[in-house]
Design a protein that fits this description.
Layout lengths: L4 E7 L5 H12 L3 E5 L12 H4 L12 H12 L4 E7 L4 E9 L4 E5 L7 H4 L4 E6 L2 H15 L4 H23 L5 E4 L5 H19 L1
Helix pairs in contact: 5-6
């Protein structure tokens, strides 16, 4: 089995992580698999919907990161995994899974992936996408209202009560573990090109 390169892409909500991830997938296609930390939110099937809406989803304890670490290790050993699927509209994990096969490049994406040292140790390149707080909140409002069926008021309340304080407590400090900090997210073409060159070099070296 060829060596698998694991790339972490972290950053605050609305920072542009998804844009960089998407551009790498567009560039390298089937050589890249993506694992979203959000899919590893813990299941709360026994909890009423009203209580689930009140949980703090921006705290490290809301994720089953141990499962993600185990899945990454399996992929690096050449085994496929069954990634859980999370449904934002019901605030719970579904009973569906997505099969992810080992590819030569695996991207792990999420706001808190550098908070866990063991997870960091699985990564070859750690990228932190940086963006101004006002840009990030506006992007989050647009995304949550348009794509996740949330009301404007609920998005703002969640941002002020948990997203912002958790960002300051956990996401921002985790930036110190990054190898590369990318201002302006996916719009930073210089940084994006550097990452593309690094991935291309890895893929070409594996072909030799």
């Amino acid at each position: 089995m060829s060596k698998i390169m694991v790339i972490g892409i972290a950053g605050g909500t609305g920072s542009g992580k998804t844009t960089i991830t998407r551009r790498l997938v567009e560039r390298f296609g089937g050589d890249v698999s993506v694992i979203h930390h959000d899919n590893y939110y813990k299941a709360h099937h026994d909890m009423p919907y009203e209580e689930r809406t009140l949980l703090n989803y921006d705290h490290p304890d809301s994720f089953d990161t141990d499962m993600l670490i185990e899945h990454l290790k399996l992929l690096k050993q050449g085994q496929s995994i069954r990634c859980p699927v999370y449904d934002y509209s019901i605030h719970d994990r579904t009973d569906k899974t997505i099969t992810i096969k080992p590819t030569r490049v695996i991207i792990v994406e999420g706001i808190l992936i550098y908070e866990n040292r063991e997870l960091c140790d699985q990564m070859d390149i750690k990228i932190f996408v940086d963006a101004d707080a006002d840009v990030r909140i506006l992007r989050r409002i647009v995304r949550d209202v348009r794509d996740r069926g949330r009301s404007l008021e609920s998005v703002i309340n969640q941002y002020l009560s948990t997203v912002k304080p958790m960002h300051e407590a956990f996401v921002e400090p985790s930036k110190r573990r990054a190898d590369v900090i990318v201002p302006e997210g996916g719009h930073n073409l210089v940084a994006l090109d550097m990452v593309i060159q690094r991935v291309r070099a890895h893929l070409e070296s594996e072909e030799d």
